[in-house]
Amino acid sequence: MEKIQVENNGVLSTISKADIEALKPEGASALAKLIDGTGAGNDFLGWVKLPSSTPASLLDDINATAAQLRDLCEVVVAIGIGGSYLGAKAVIEALSNSFAAYRNEGTKVLFAGQNIGEDYLAELQDYLAGKKFGIIVISKSGTTTEPAIAFRILKEQLEKELGREEANKRIVAITDAKRGALRSLATTEGYKTYVIDDNVGGRFSVLSPVGLLPIAVAGYDIHALIKGAADMEAATLSGACDAAMTYALTRNALYRAGKKIEILVNYNPKLHFFGEWWKQLYGESEGKDHKGIFPAAVDNTTDLHSMGQWIQDGERTIFETVITVAKAERELRIPFDEANLDGLNYIAGKRIDEVNKMAELGTRIAHIDGGVPNLTITLPALSEYCLGSLIYFFEAACGISGYILDVNPFNQPGVEDYKRNMFALLEKPGYEKETEAIRAKL
């Protein structure tokens, strides 16, 4: 196993090793709740042993469906919101060439249903016009507003271009096994389907067909992704690897010391959407009962020229978790220039990654000296195996951390509040009382 390493010496000017050690009994209890299913939200613990319980036959079937979509389509649009798109987007972006949606020439994977942007959807329709495209629609109910709107619009476009029968061959639904509007439509129309298990919540679903199918369509090795996650699962649940536990204990010790904001930092632009996935995972899991660390993310060195000043000299309520990638995939060296007008000859011959690593190290030292505690997570490489390990690492640490915080990490009651108001304002049937109440406030 290419191991993920967690190093927390950069927090010891703020908290002590004893502070972290004092949380070990709570951490052990939290891990036991995940394993035994005895904690709050235990009906959503299907993700805990999902990697090891995923049969190779399912991965093979997903790969076969992905191959069919690639044969039929230039573009596949994955429709979903929250965990139904962020995990797949994170992995695809991390593995892809920065200037192509696909490492080799082939089918592009685009995303819709993650917003209600009229211009976004209209421009997407313009882009798809005349192209051979397909749809992966991801929704347990089929009625979540954002993906339901996008699916209605793109399904109509696909059917107009190809006819209903041909369109149905290019639509795959990932939904509930038995219930819901999307399940009913998929059964009626004969769509290929995959199941979102009842015990796997959306933000923990990237290692299910929700994430695996779009990743496979993009051409990446989902067997290796699941293998990385399964190895991390085995090591974490057995106690052979304490990386997730160390991360969970350290961040909670910092929280109790008054550090209320965690900034996930990367120094590789391919990890931008990994930060977006992480923000949802931790924000939706821990932000309850007026408690929880606020998750933010920055892309360095880019954001050193914007957020860097605030992080260095702003309010001392923050800590950073830095993801460093040990090995770059490509090699590029800085050339020597005879005129040296830019003054860069002192680093001529050095790899770009070496300069980046020194920027990373220099920033960490400056921030620690400035009173910003730093954890470091070292990822061996940007590969399917390592990303699978990282996904499970963060999921396990999130479950442990949520239980230490004494919240239910697996529900999201606050998300429903805005929906009630939106439905009332749109005068959705069944919300008449809410409509009257909200009009009285306006």
Q: How would you characterize the overall build of this protein?
A:
- The chain has about 450 residues and is of the alpha/beta class.
- It has two domains: about 5-40 and about 225-405, Glucose-6-phosphate isomerase like protein, domain 1 (Rossmann fold), CATH 3.40.50; about 50-225, Glucose-6-phosphate isomerase like protein, domain 1 (Rossmann fold).
- It has 18 helices and ten strands.
- Strands 1-10-9-7-8 form a five-stranded mixed beta sheet, with helices on both faces. Strands 3-2-4-5-6 form a five-stranded parallel beta sheet, sandwiched between helices.
- Helix 5 (about 85-95) links the parallel strand 2 (about 75-80) and strand 3 (about 110).
- Helix 2 (about 25-35) packs across helix 16, helix 4 (about 55-70) crosses helix 10 (about 210-215) and helix 11 runs parallel beside helix 16.
- The chain starts with a strand and ends with a helix.
- The mean pLDDT is about 95.
